[in-house]
Amino acid sequence: MARIVSLGSALQDIYLIDHDDLVATPVNKGSIYSDILVGSKVDIDKISYEIGGGGINSAISFARHGHEVIFMGNIAHDPAGEAVISILDRENIDSSYISFLGRKSTGTSVILLDERSGERTILTYRGASAQFGNFNEQDLDLIQPDWLYVTSLKGDYDTLERFFKKAKEIGARIMFNPGGKELKDRKRLVELLQYVDILNLNQSEAKAIVPGVNLSELISHLRIYSETVIITAGPMGGVASSGDETYRFGIYEDKKVKDATGAGDAFGSGFLAHLASGKSFEKSLVFASANSTSVITKIGANKGILTGKEHLHLMPIQKI
Questions:
Q1: What is the count of structural domains for the chain?
Q2: Are 308 and 64 contacting, i.e. CB atoms less than 8 angstroms apart?
Q3: Band of residue 33 on the pLDDT scale cut at 50, 70, 90
């Protein structure tokens, strides 16, 4: 088993679930909830309180695999923060490197979920989870992780650079799943990729970094910057390349989406959880797809996360 630091956000997710008022109506290239009028009162069928955030979701994937996991993120001394600590304790995740910020509340998302279609709209207050500059990369000297897993730090390139350089200095490997704020500064992102061992992106994110129309072109260009690259393309599967191995893969199962929140986190962290357990590149891709598929069948970003002990059936995957 490996020692993994998960650096990222922690949020309380409050789901408002309905079957008739949250109906998506197509408008131009998107859709809106047309049955909700400003000033009206809407009766909701269900409410569910969950814990999410990229750092938390990923930490749970690693812990359920049996890895030693340390979570780094910011919360506050409030009920949502207590809920974050509770789930970390339940999942046997080290919370001793969490920071409690004053004058901020724990990040919170309100998720409007159409129970019939799985369509959702997320209203997010980042709060304490919006900053990371208070973390000290010297803590990695004490922790001595095998892996540093980083989701979006909301464009905080100074913190990213500090932690990436320290990780390399102590011999830790890095898997990175950048977010929208990081992608806005392509120049700095490309400079950071020299430290990244595994880069995980979706297709639109890949297009924001390198030229290319199809997945083969995108991954060929990204391999210049990182040893291992994984690009996902939703229901179309994706492509992954490492060393002399390149795979095209489909989805694990065509399941009805109950809630897509956390599907990307489940894929990326599921891949590393399996790989760090000594599994092959190909098997880790299969597990990542299965983990993501399982997550979308439950409400909550991490309820469906697998343990790695499940029997997995074959899925469309081809070495190219």
A1: 1
A2: yes
A3: confident
